[in-house]
# Entry
Amino acid sequence: MIVVLLGPPGAGKGTQGERIAAALGVPKIATGDVLRAAVKDGTKLGLEAKAFMDRGDLVPDAVILGIMKEALAQPAQAKGVILDGVVRTVPQAEGLAKVTKELGRKVDVVLVFDIADDLLVERLSGRTTCDREQKPFTGLKPGDPCPNKCGGTLVRRQDDEPEAIRNRLRVYQAQTAPVLDWYMGQGANVVRIDAAGSFDDVTKRALATVGR
Ligand code: AMP
# Structure
């Protein structure tokens, strides 16, 4: 089963995506994680992506399509995959449709996380991320040790600073919201869930959309 997670930054796609992936026994790919790892390792991809990411702008479609193609060709994804933040523009949705078709597959569910902007700003500005595992946490400070005791330290992502958050929300409305209309126009299986509330409640709603 191929599941596309759509929703603004801070809607919980990462956390819920992990849970859906675990329930279905399939991997999750997040382009944001792939790009942050590349930035950390100082690779060519990372150098190309960093300035866009720091501002909260989107990395060019051609870069994302390359990552998408490579990731979907991995044998680990034969049973399915959860795509978290991988599709953020209409050309990316078109590119994904092409890649899946070439592989004899299709997107089974487009799961949309609905949530109000003020809640997103509150969540993102209170978020810290482990610099080693890249997992997000709330209620902790930059500089604290990772609560998972992985040896990492919590940091504030550059794009979780207030100006970048505002830009990411603008970018979402301008470039990613139209992806939803594109999928509806294609007759895709688009399911919207209320992404406010406790993590566990949202997980129940999310799992119901994939038959769990
Ligand atoms: P995320 O971790 O999903 O919030 O992504 C962090 C940043 O990575 C975004 O603000 C973009 O700069 C970049 N990024 C991640 N995925 C994509 C994508 N599919 N298209 C363009 N840029 C992306």
Notes: The beta strands are 2-6, 28-30, 81-84, 109-114, 127-130, 136-138, 154-155, 190-194. The mean pLDDT is 95. Residues 30 and 84 are 5 Å apart (CA to CA). The chain has eight helices and eight strands.
